[in-house]
Design brief:
A 5-stranded antiparallel β-sheet has the order 2-3-4-5-6, with helices on both faces. It is α+β, with helices and mostly antiparallel strands and 193 residues long. Strand 5 and strand 6 form a beta hairpin. The protein has one domain: Peptide Deformylase (Alpha-Beta Complex). Helix content is 27%, strand content 28%. Bound molecules: zinc ion. Zinc ion binds next to helix 2.
Amino acid sequence: MILPIVSYGNAILKSRARDITADYPGLQALISDMFETMQSASGVGLAAPQVNLGIRLFVVDATPFADEDPRAKNFQKVFINPRITERSGEDVLYEEGCLSFPGIREEVSRKSSIRITYQDAQFQSHDEVYDGIIARIIQHEYDHIEGLLIVDHLSSLRKMLLKRRLKELTLGQVKVAYRMIFPGQRRQAATAN
Ligand SMILES: [Zn+2]
């Protein structure tokens, strides 16, 4: 099932998500819905707060970057209760998009390498090291469960230049090819009831 994606401006994207246990209701269906939602929106990562759930879970499918890095091919993983325990290497600038910011791409500086502990869909624990594009995607998704967004990485000048477009986004005044929840829309629905 394809889930609607929460846009910038919704409070859940600014909140730190909480850990879950293996008996979290509907976990396997949620993971499969999140993969389907991400792929149908041509995304390479999707975090639970982006589908309106404040839990520490995100999915990654790096396959679209296979030309750039062969390790990205078929890299499809779910990360549950993850903790980035180490960030190392150089600072790398790279242009990122985000399904919660349709139409906006901004250069974000991140460390080239990370170490991460997490549980998989069967709640088996892992401790792994990543670099390159996979480390990039994981750090972006990890930000989401910490309540951080690409705009939080930008200079005040970049943020000022984006101000009008961000405002339009919170009002739902953007063209998007996938279903979204805009803060403005939700208010309208509430007053209609
Ligand atoms: Zn994002």
